Structures are given as C-alpha cells and as structure tokens.
C-alpha cells in the first residue's frame, strides 16, 4: 500500500505516435503546439515531460532532430521539468531513427520499451467518421500487421549508447515478461537502481486494463528488484487512464497522464489540453492527501544527472 508522506510523481506524455490528428482536434501537432502544451502541463504539476515529435505539416510522427530542436530547448528554458525523450518513436521507425535525437541531446531520461510486441489500435479505424489527413487511415489500419521491435540486442544498444552519457530510463513494461527482461539486464550489470518502471495497461497486444494485472505487476517487481530499488508508475490507455493511475497511487506508485495515452478527460469529454489531465489527476491525488513531487524531488528520487548536463545547445546546432 502507499507510504504516508511520500511524494507522487506525475509524468505527462504530451503527444505520442499512436493517436492521429482526426482522433482529437486538441492533439498537439506542430512544434509550437507541443512546446506550449508541455509547458502548461509542467506548470500544472507534471514533473516529467515525455516527448515525441510530429511533422509540422500533417502531424505524422517523425524522429527528425530538426523538429525536436524546435520545441525541446524551449520547454527546458521555460520550466524545470525533467525532459524525457522517447526511444520508442513509432512502429514504422528504425532503431537508428528512434535514437537520432536522444544521441544528440543526451537527456536526463529516455523511455525504453522492454520488449518486442504487437502494438495496435486498429479497431478504432472502423469508428472514425472521417480523416483529417490522407496518411491517417492507412497508418491506423496498418497497425494490425505491424510489430514494435525491441530485441534484446536493441535494448542493450540503447542502454549502452544512452546510459553511457548518464541518461536514465523510463522502463515501459507492457507485459509481465517485460519485467523479467529488465531483470535480465540488471543481472548483466547494464542498469542500476533506482529503476523507474512504467507499467502500461490497456494497449491491444499488451496487458489488459484489469486492476488484478496491476497487483501482479507490482508484486512481481517486488520479487525481482525489491521495493526499495524501484519506483512503480502506471499509465492506463484510453478510458482506463484516470481509474488505473489513481489505483496506482493508492498502491504506492506514481502516475502518467497525457494525450499520448488518452484523448479524453472524462467519459465522452475530450481533454482540451495535456494540462487539463495533469490538473485533474493532481486534484484527485491531493484530495487523497498525497503530496506531488517536484522536478527537484524527481531528480533526487531517480538519481538523475540534472538539466545542466543535457546537451541542449549541441542538439540544437
């Protein structure tokens, strides 16, 4: 259960690469949109900002360092939030493409998917009445025949390349086996505690959004790593977002929200911004008497290298 007086980390995943523009008019697409929504989310209480990039013209996911450079330094200038850059990108990107910007930036944190998997939202295509851009329909329907690849060698490469610069990881675990994959790399000496384990529920291809699954993930992580050696965090996809992350906090964990994970604020109500979701979960947590972690708290809790050691200037050049 939760520990009295502990601080809860709120992460915000601002745009992602799964939802397409037609799913919400509020999904940030341009560098300016991503910048502004990330800054507002940080001001609302998100200590970690998880970032993907999108092509400014049509909102399709892009790994381009030039696009990332148009908003990441500005977020760092305007907030003290921990900048967390994806290494997942999208299922259509190569590993080299996914690592292009993190290699330049050498951020405090990067996400790291802990295994290859089916990853899809293709059933949503049949529910879309229209499409804003020509690429979207094929992109969503095509997920039915796509695999997100992160082999053991891929994961090792990410750990060595980025970890060698002091980058720490948000270990995204979509299934129970991903915890065992992480334990393997711990045994190999490639990563050290404290581990930030982001358990993902509700993605087709991964664990379902059943509360029982969260209990199994928590108890398994306890056995593999020891509770003092990791921080548990949860994201719930779609309509499961708020109930699951609230349960995670009550179980002693941390929370992730954001339009990458759900475009809704409540049943039938689309979130108008990432900050709205952050403000909502913050209110829920504070009403449950939890204290919200600041970016400075997070840097201490996760042993991060600090923003002063991130190569913002080099990545922009």
Short structural description:
Strand 2 (10-13), helix 1 and strand 3 form a beta-alpha-beta unit.
Q: What number of structural domains do the residues give? A: 1
Sketch the major β-sheet: 8 strands, parallel, barrel
Shape summary: globular
User: Distance between termini?
Assistant: 47 Å
In total, the number of strands is 16
The helix-strand sequence is EEHEEEHHEHEEHEHEHEHEHEEEHEHH
Structural class: alpha/beta
Question: Looking at this structure, what is the CATH superfamily?
Answer: Aldolase class I
Radius of gyration: 18 Å
Assembly context of the chains: single chain
CATH class designation: Alpha Beta
Low-confidence stretches: none
Physical arrangement of strands within the biggest beta sheet: 2-3-6-7-10-11-12-13
CATH A-level architecture? Alpha-Beta Barrel
CATH topology: TIM Barrel
Report mean pLDDT, rounded to a whole number: 96
Q: What's the helix count?
A: 12
How are the SSEs placed, and which strands pair?
Blueprint: E1 7-8, E2 10-13, H1 31-44, E3 48-51, E4 53-54, E5 61-62, H2 65-68, H3 72-78, E6 82-85, H4 95-105, E7 109-113, E8 117-118, H5 136-142, E9 147-148, H6 152-163, E10 168-173, H7 176-187, E11 195-201, H8 211-225, E12 230-236, H9 241-250, E13 254-257, E14 264-266, E15 269-270, H10 274-287, E16 291-292, H11 295-302, H12 312-316
Parallel strand pairs: 1-16, 2-3, 2-13, 3-6, 6-7, 7-10, 10-11, 11-12, 12-13
Antiparallel strand pairs: 4-5, 8-9, 14-15
Helix pairs in contact: 1-3, 1-10, 4-6, 7-8
């Amino acid at each position: 259960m939760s520990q009295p007086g502990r601080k809860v980390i709120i992460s915000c995943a601002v745009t992602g690469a799964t939802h397409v523009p037609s799913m919400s008019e509020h999904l940030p697409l341009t560098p300016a949109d991503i910048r502004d929504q990330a800054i507002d989310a940080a001001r609302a209480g998100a200590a970690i900002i998880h970032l993907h990039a999108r092509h400014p013209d049509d909102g399709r996911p892009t790994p381009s360092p030039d696009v990332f450079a148009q908003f990441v330094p500005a977020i760092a200038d305007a907030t003290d939030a921990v900048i967390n850059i994806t290494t997942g990108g999208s299922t259509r990107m190569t590993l080299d493409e996914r690592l292009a910007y993190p290699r330049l930036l050498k951020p405090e944190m990067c996400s790291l998917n802990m295994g290859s998997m089916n990853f899809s939202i293709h059933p949503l295509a049949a529910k879309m009445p229209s499409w804003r851009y020509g690429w979207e329909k094929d992109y969503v329907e095509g997920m039915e025949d796509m695999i997100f690849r992160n082999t053991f060698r891929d994961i090792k490469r990410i750990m060595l390349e980025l970890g060698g610069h002091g980058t720490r990881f948000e270990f995204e675990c979509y299934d129970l086996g991903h915890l065992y994959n992480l334990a393997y790399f711990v045994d190999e000496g490639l990563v050290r505690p404290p581990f930030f384990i982001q358990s993902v529920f509700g993605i087709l291809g991964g664990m379902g959004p059943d509360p029982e699954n969260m209990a199994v993930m928590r108890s398994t992580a306890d056995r593999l790593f020891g509770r003092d050696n990791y921080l548990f965090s949860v994201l719930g996809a779609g309509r499961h977002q708020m109930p699951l992350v609230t349960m995670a906090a009550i179980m002693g964990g941390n929370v992730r929200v954001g339009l990458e994970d759900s475009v809704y604020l409540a049943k039938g109500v689309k979130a108008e911004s990432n900050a709205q979701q952050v403000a909502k979960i913050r209110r829920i947590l504070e009403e449950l008497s939890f204290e919200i972690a600041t970016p400075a708290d997070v840097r201490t809790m996760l042993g991060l290298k600090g923003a002063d050691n991130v190569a913002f200037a080099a990545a922009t050049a």
